[in-house]
Design goal:
about 150 residues; alpha/beta; Ribosomal Protein L15, Chain: K, domain 2; three-stranded parallel beta sheet; 3 helices; about 15% helix; elongated
């Protein structure tokens, strides 16, 4: 095998459709564009969403709400999920990512108080709900709020 005799495998390529090359080709005369009309002309394309002059759907629907620029999206973790950790470990964003409880440590982390906690550990997060604080401290752990 050499570079000068490499070929694509049989059946993997097709010849391109040559249109507008006479009536005998089967693709002559109108060159597969049908008869007259906007789409048969050169440059005759219709932009996406155009509905023939009718008011388009995206303009018929009302605009609702807004997206605040300074919105902060927290990664949420419940107390019951923290029971996966060993007693006495330091639970922070990177350890939560390692255990698969949050996807990324880019967003700030908030610990919520849903569920019960039986082990004690030091939890470092950006925010805590009041019930989460109470339950962690009641189980003998400690919290550290960073933000």
């Amino acid at each position: 095998m050499e570079l000068n005799n490499l070929r694509p495998s049989v059946g993997s390529t097709k010849n391109r459709k040559r249109i507008g090359r006479g009536t005998g080709s089967g693709h002559g005369k109108t060159a597969t564009k049908g008869h007259k009309g906007q789409k048969a002309r050169s440059g005759g394309s219709i932009k996406a969403g155009f509905e023939g002059g009718q008011m388009p759907l995206q303009r018929r629907l009302p605009k609702r709400g807004f997206t605040p620029i300074d919105r902060v999206v927290f990664s949420l973790v419940n107390i019951k999920q923290l029971d996966l950790f060993e007693v006495g470990t330091i639970v922070n964003a990177s350890s939560l990512v390692a255990m698969g409880l949050i996807k990324s440590d880019r967003n700030p982390v908030k610990i919520l108080g849903n569920g019960e906690i039986t082990k004690s550990f030091k939890v470092i997060a950006n925010k805590f709900s009041q019930t989460a604080k109470d339950k962690i401290i009641a189980a003998g752990g400690s919290i550290e709020e960073t933000l």
